Amino acid sequence: MTYALQILTAFLGSFGFSILFNIRRSKLLIASLGGAFAWSIYLVLGTVLPSETVRYFFAAVFVTVYAEVFARIAKTPTTSFLVSGIIPLVPGSALYNTMKFALNEDWSAFGETAIYTVQLAMAIAAGIMVVSSLIHIVTGGFQHLKAYFKKR
Amino acid sequence: MILFPKEVFSVKTEDLLRVSLDIGEKMLISGAEISRVEDSLRRILAAYKVQRADIFTITSSIVATVTDADGRTITQTRRIQKYNTNLEKLDALNALSREICANAPPLSEIRQALLETEEKNHYPLVAQCLAYALIAGAFSVFFGGTGTDGIAAAGLGVFLKLFTFAVNRTKVNMLFANVAASFSVCTIAFLVTAVLHGLHPDKMIIGNIMLLIPGIAMTNSIRDIISGDSMAGILRFCEALAVAIAIAAGYILASLLTGGLFK
Lengths: 152, 263
What we know:
Order of helices and strands of chain B: HHEEEHHHHHHHH
Largest sheet of chain B: 3 strands, antiparallel
Number of strands of chain A: 0
Radius of gyration of chain A: 18 Å
Helix content of chain A: over 70%
Distance between the termini of chain A: 60 Å
Largest interface: A-B, 45 and 51 residues
Shape of chain B: elongated
Largest sheet of chain A: none
Strand content of chain A: under 5%
Oligomer: heterodimer
Number of domains of chain B: 2
Low-confidence stretches of chain B: 5-9
Mean pLDDT of chain A: 89
Number of domains of chain A: 1
């Protein structure tokens, strides 16, 4: 039940951000569903992977694949679907906890959560980079092949 | 080296560079990645058969140097002051730049098309207020708040939108605006929970912080660094970090103030 609620709110949150980023028409739905998709992946991975960081990494990997695929279908920059899909993964509560520990002058907990927040951000960025680099290599190779056969 | 016939190069290089930079500038402001801006500019200039084009983009400026077919070298720079993520506009600009690369149309046509992309406005203010309410409410529940927390956070979200809208009008320093926004949202959240019991200020604040934190900027900065645009990445990371600290400062000020009032 809480899982369903989380996925629903992830969808609504991504939908809201898609409006703020001025995404229109059918792209609005794809972008919002990306957020729900990202969080579903995160939840599903929870059954096999204990590490939060690794789950964030793989959730980012899947949502980037999702964004790249739909960007090609809708012929739009990948950013459109990527930024709104990533939104539920943004470590808002980790950041809040970091602030709270700073307020309570609990500096060891502060350091721990601050590092944890950065870790999550880096896991997300790494997940995005792995996929976009691979896609870059694949499409680049494909174009080289096409040019090669045209020449012949 | 390839020499191009003179008649191909009937466009004036200064004008070409100016129009290309217009496109690049608008792309960057609308939320394009550094690599997309540089790549688009390089391709557009190549479509008009320049000998050489060097483009360097960071978050706050674009520098482009072009050597044309006659061997003249021209440099133009743009300073980008303010971002305004508008992905519909970015989409239009991207389509335009593809079109230019394919057909190399006369510059007047590009200027006309650029004017048309300017019409890709944001959703109206009311819709944006609702979006703020939706985001704040949804994330307050997402991070474990109750339904009432969600509704209260949504109300705060509308306030936050109107507040930032008003503050942006005054052209005040961006960091101060963030401190003020975070401070006022947190103060209201603490005051409301002091009066109405059963609300969780933490959850209400987290929902609204999702609207303020530069999560996307932070992620993009790390992407820039990994993909080799380290200058741009480091700048963006510092900006994002400064905003995060501003939000934390607002929160801490608010809880010290209200904590002093109610304890």
